[in-house]
Amino acid sequence: MLTLLGMCDGVFVKTKEVRGRDGSNVQIKEHYVLIQVEEQNQYDRVEVKTREVRMAKKHIDSGIDRLYDALKGKPVAVPVYVQAWASRAGNAGFDLWLSGDGKNANVQLIPAEK
Q1: Which residues neighbour 87 within 8 Å (Cβ) at sequence distance 6 or greater?
Q2: Per-residue pLDDT tens over the stretch 63-84
Q3: CA distance linking residue 86 with residue 114, whole number of Å
Q4: In this structure, are residues 29 and 14 in contact, taking their beta carbons and an 8 Å threshold?
Q5: Strands 46-55 and 92-98
Q6: Residue 9 pLDDT more than 90?
Q7: Torsions phi, psi of 26, nearest 5?
Q8: How far is CA 6 from CA 42, 77, 80, 105, in A?
Q9: Helix or strand or coil: residue 5?
Q10: What's the CA gap between 98 and 55, in Å, rounded?
Q11: Which residues pair with 85 in a beta bridge?
């Protein structure tokens, strides 16, 4: 299991249309935990980026989305796993998914020395 460290930016719900099994369009909701992380760019400068961690239905049913909404603006350690994907159009990428019970790990963040 991997742990994503950063500042919690709450929960985001994205609605999108997908083609159903019968060929009709169906609307689905995808739930994400937004995490602000610091990364170094190619010029050795620190940039803040927002990473989205997708939540499975079991996490929504357990109420974990309310937990992360309550942690907005606080440092978190989010358990994640990586799922790679490829499309028929030749694109490829990866998604971060909430792992295990999805609860924030009690990890103390220690700032790096300068």
Answers
A1: none
A2: 999 999 999 999 999 999 999 9
A3: 40
A4: yes
A5: parallel
A6: yes
A7: -125, 135
A8: 20, 7, 13, 12
A9: strand
A10: 5
A11: 93
Pairing mode of beta strands 75-86, 25-40: unpaired
Both tokens assigned to 92:
């490829």
Looking up tokens 């924030």 gives 104
Amino acid at residue number 16 = K
Contacts 24+ apart (CB under 8 A), 87-95: 95/54
**CATH architecture for residues 2-98:** Beta Barrel (2.40)
Question: Domain segments of the chain: what residues?
Answer: 2-98
This prediction has a pTM of 0.80
Which amino acid, one-letter code, is at 27? Q
